[in-house]
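cache lookup: miss for this entity combination. No prior model stored, computing from scratch. Input as submitted by user K.M.:
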Amino acid sequence: MGKGDVKLLGAWPSPYVLRVKIALNLKSVDYEFQEENLGSKSELLIKSNPVYKKIPVLLHGGKPICESLIIVQYIDEAWSDIGPSILPSDPYDRAVARFWAAYVDDKILPAVKGIVVANGEEAKVKELKEVLVLLEEAFILKSSAGEGKPFFGGDEIGYLDIALGSLLGLLRVTEKSFNVKLLEEATTPRLVSWADSFCTHPAVKDQLPDTHKLFEFVQKVVYPRINDHI
Amino acid sequence: MGKGDVKLLGTWPSPYVMRVKIALNLKSVDYEYQEDNLENKSELLLKSNPVYKKIPILLHGGKPICESLIIVQYIDEAWSGIGPSILPSDPYDRAVARFWAAYIDDEFYPARAVNRIVVANGEEAKAAAVKELKDALVLLEEAFLKISGEGKPFFGGDKIGYLDIALGSLLGWLTVTEKTFNVKLFEEATTPRLVSWVDSFCKHPAVKDELPDTHKLSEYAHNVVYPHLKEVAAAAAN
């Protein structure tokens, strides 16, 4: 299939777009990337995602798929015979991966918002750290099943690695903005090494937004409008 | 596999529990049902879903699966050789079904269908909230037209599927909403395909014995759910 067959509408700071890029890389899919200006959305974006008008949108043979985790599952299924499986093969493991990915989407951004709105207040930072500790425990449970593997997905990155890993940039910016530590040896040691393994993975490392650029963007654009964003 | 192998923790008013029951019925799975009490949650519930402490929870061979749509997908995959497929087979159709099921849970119910209407202050605000709900139903009608295919009874085509279950499980509560706020949600003028779909869904063998008593549900809404929503809204405003 030609590159023209797969198109991704996105924006460079978006962790949700990053999820899709990583999944496409894992499956070695050639695609065309269109950078969207969220202040002035393209006709194609509005036509492809009329319900939410949000990125990412994946267009495959012209047909749009929306919502980052739905897109990642689509990629796993549409290119099921190529590259690693993104979701685990066992139905129970799949349910567990889906549960924690949904938890990530449920809890992390609202917790970040809580910190920003309260200007780094300790109680709000504690809330996010508790979320991360739960994910640390989930990682330990997964790892004990797979004997100290580097990723939630085992030897290879998978669905939950992608769901959580895509938010590392935002977590790092939040740490820097409020001079706090969110992922640390004392509370989330396994996630600290996991974060390193994730960010150096071949399907990931060239997709990570520049931390300095992201920091400026989040400070200038995201935080001031945090009540609109979430 | 013996009945003891599959256990469902739920409560009778929950549309999310109903989703799981329908899926289990479609796959002819024998299961044990435990009615839980949300005012006094069982040890098993708390142990099986420590993160959210909510129902439904499916226990299969003692292992818990949580979140209704995740459970439905699990049932489809764990009993994949038995009965109809719940999700479509084509990856694109699957993505579309997942999109609309997520829309239903994020944007439609309880968001517009209940939350905003119940707490709306004054007639104008209520009318605006009702309009938002009806607009959402028109979106779902349009989705039905695109997804189901020429003259088919269900979102899943000839047979009920993931999206039918996601939306259909809410019909009892939507009826309560209609009665409480004196509105018609599904009507020939705006959502004709969905009107017939409601009928087909409710008559389906895997569904008809699981439909809640709307009178009982209405009482529960007025005595428990709506006051709670108003309390939460009032607390948030202060």
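stored under new cache key. The interface with chain A takes residues 51, 60, 63, 65-67, 70-71, 73-74, 77-78, 91-92, 94-95, 98-99, 102-103, 139 of chain B (CB under 8 Å).
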